Amino acid sequence: MLVVVDILDIPSSPSTILTINRFLIDYFGQPPPTKSAMTTVVEQLKTMAHSLSLLITALDDVPCTESELHTLDTIAATIQDASLAIQKKTGSFRPPRNDRVWKSCEEQRSKAQSTIATLLAEGKLQNASVFKRNIATIYRGPSSSELDSRDVKRRKGVTQRRCHRLQQLCPDSIVSWAVSYPPSSWGGGNIADDIFDCLVEDIQPNDTKAWPATVRELLVKIRDAEIQDCPGLDQLVETPNDPSRYTADENYKSAPARAIVTAPGAPADEHREMKQMFSSAPAARVLQLPQPFREAVQNSMLWKWERGQGRGTTGTMATLFPKDATQDVSFTIRCGHNDGYRLNDTYGFKLAFSS
């Protein structure tokens, strides 16, 4: 039986600290240092994670009986549940993607990416009113009335929770969402939770966006005229403070690209002989990959097999070094079959050869 404790809501009372100390002593055989409850928990979890990674690595060369394998399965489930609890508290948790749901919202995602690309390319908002209404909805929530029926209150409650979810995103994600989806398209009762989750996941960028100056100007107007004393909106307007994040509209069109001088023969055409390959990275390093690569790797058959075997390392990532030190090094990942096609679509890959 696993009891998952909401560690961020633990009060720092003497009785609570004593309970935590007893729990940790049972696991580590020694009392933790006398500090605040939260600091103690974090430090002991860090120690536990380090010890666990060493033990898992040792499993690779140790044969197991059927009984031991069954016990390891139980331990793995416990560790997985604990990991999910921590990820939910840190905000890094992403629910497993449902291919059916992902496919069903493909048109919405495609339109959103097109809208964002047009804004970045042309420097003008296609529909400023949608942007303003979205920002107002996200930071003020839906309006309420004593005359609202029970069903209306329920739907507005869903919208309020979604507003809170959107507020937790990075500034680029919030702006991307606000220019892409009208409030009427994502409020409670308009789309299911799983569709909303997919759209939120997809809207999170893999790089920093250089928004046109008109975006910040509108945000400032909304803050000063409509939504005052809102820390979240203040942060969205002022973060980051680097003015290079916003490009002046009159200078928005990029200058002609410089000609790139290359040596005869493209590097891709060079005859490359491999000298070294590096792999078997700690499995936890996969969590440091940005999306969509992290999820793509975790959907690979190799990753799932490694986790099923309890391995502490992974072969899903590798670097290939050529014999010629002047040639490029290749960094490769293994990903799920369907995820490979999604990466093709996301980054616009073209078919190079087929067999």
From TrEMBL:
Domain of life: Eukaryota
This protein's name: Uncharacterized protein
Record lineage: Eukaryota, Fungi, Dikarya, Ascomycota, Pezizomycotina
